[in-house]
Amino acid sequence: MKMKRIVGKINGFMSVSIALLIWYGMGKIHNGELSIGVLYAFTTYIKQFFEPIGDLSEDYGTIQSALVSADRIFEIVDQKENVEDLDAGRHIERFHGSVEFKHVWFAYKGEEWILKDISFKINDGDMCAFVGETGAGKSTIISLISGFYKVQRGEILIDGVNIDDICRRDLRTNVSVVLQDVFLFSGTVRDNIVLNDEIDEETLNNSIEISQVKNIISNFKDGIYEKVVEGGNTFSAGQKQLISFARAIAHDPSIFVLDEATATETEILIQKAIKSITDNVTTIVIAHRLSTIKDADKIIVLKDGGIIEQGSHKELMKRQGYYSSLVMTVQ
């Protein structure tokens, strides 16, 4: 701001200088002592003299931005190495799939709690759904189950073992998450399902069958070998979700998570896929469309970072509480 004020004063001084020069020069021209060409040359010289000062304001902003960027770069360079050791901890090749939160408190920053004293248990093989408004903490719970963050208070148990003690590689191998915004890599549909892992054809075909991807690839010219551009921009949101669904099933997880992955166009197909997979693995669903979770073994209702209700669809409807009001609102 100071630089702008200084440049403004200099520009004002330049204008005054040119005005005085023209006033003085016109008198000289009138007396025949000065030509118009010489007066024009002098005004041009004055502008050229002050022009670099005017450019300085723009350069000053660029320099300030560069200094801020340099500070950020140096912060990264000065950071101590903090690479996560994926193989540290207890090795568990295959989970049974039970998940338990015991008085969990979590905040991304300080004590701005996102989750407050959260306690629940999902038995292995059960389907559990989380319901709540945006910001209630649903996605945060998924991030904690995936081991992306550590809780400040309480503990998270998988098969009775504290999640912090489990090898991260085993944890992420056993937990598959289907996000709402799916990223597809360049290649083919098949490549995006197997992800360069050694997956046999029987497993691949089974994942395509269960995920209902067969219903979309049947419309492709090259079927499962249909070309995919970076980001999957030639596919609809629903198609990308189903492909991501098949990707997760093909890698045979113990815990399957659907994070708001219910696009309207594929909602019926995803419901069929959920019913097919829930008999074998623990399934956790987060969705705003309550029609996708009516068959869940347990529904946990979150509000302001805490649990206000939990039970089956029938149990919660009988209570006529917050969940019941949500269902009545969307009907």
From TrEMBL:
PROSITE patterns linked: ABC_TM1F, ABC_TRANSPORTER_1, ABC_TRANSPORTER_2
Annotated membrane topology: Multi-pass membrane protein
GO MF terms, alphabetically ordered: ABC-type oligopeptide transporter activity; ATP binding; ATP hydrolysis activity
Any one GO CC term of the record: plasma membrane
Localization, UniProt: Cell membrane
ABC transporter domain sequence ranges: 99-329
Chief location of this protein within or outside the cell: membrane
Transmembrane segments: 7-26
Residues covered by the ABC transmembrane type-1 domain: 10-65
Top-rank lineage group of the source organism: Bacteria
Keywords, ordered alphabetically: ATP-binding, Cell membrane, Membrane, Nucleotide-binding, Transmembrane, Transmembrane helix, Transport
PANTHER family named in the record: ATP-BINDING CASSETTE SUB-FAMILY B MEMBER 10, MITOCHONDRIAL (PTHR43394:SF1), ATP-DEPENDENT PERMEASE MDL1, MITOCHONDRIAL (PTHR43394)
Name of this chain's protein: ABC transporter ATP-binding protein
